[in-house]
Design brief:
The complex is a heterodimer of chains A (106) and B (122). Chain A has 106 residues and is mainly β. Chain A has no helices and eleven strands. Classes of the chains: A mainly beta (106), B mainly beta (122).
Chain lengths: 106, 122
Amino acid sequence: DIQMTQSPSSVSASVGDRVTITCRASQDINKWLAWYQQRPRQAPKLLIYAASKLSSGVPSRFSGSGSGTDFTLTIGSLQPEDSATYFCQQGTGYPYTFGQGTKVEI
Amino acid sequence: QLQLQESGPGLVKPSQTLSLTCIVSGGSISTGGHQWTWIRQLPGKGLQWIGYVYHSGSTYYTPSLESRVAISLDTSENQVSLRLNSVTAADTAVYYCARVRYFDTSASFDYWGQGILVTVSS
């Protein structure tokens, strides 16, 4: 299985801050990475696919980058509603696997 | 707007079979070439992909669950089903159904149900 490792496991930041989360794959996954946001007691929501493409309706303060094994999710100006856990997921090798999550607290 | 809704028992006894249904509304599960998948979230832990069923009925399961799991489509009811046999406490989780979205050859999950908590306990 392809292992996905996120860092940090949690981050505390203020409204307006820029927040960066990293995700590392145990092998080359090209650009085939997605990011999800999960608010408490809700299902995950797709934010970004193919490493950098914004899913429909997702605010432009969210951006993704990277290829190969190293990826980042950036929240450009943190908003109160961004308090959530963020997961990365590789979509190229079976079984599909997720990172362990990064909790963003405001 | 596509909507997914999981249903089923919230409590299953050890060694029995977990059976869940995902009702899909706002679109047909048998068109569009989509895959339909189940994902679970173990308590306090991350997300585990269980497997998928293609609109043709073909399936793929994660190897660690392959011997116990079955995912199927009921096109007449526009539903996706999950069966997991011989459950133990380790199968206690929130179970989600989701639609698989492909971009080039890469999969992500663009529509999710709200999830259903299934507890395995006697």
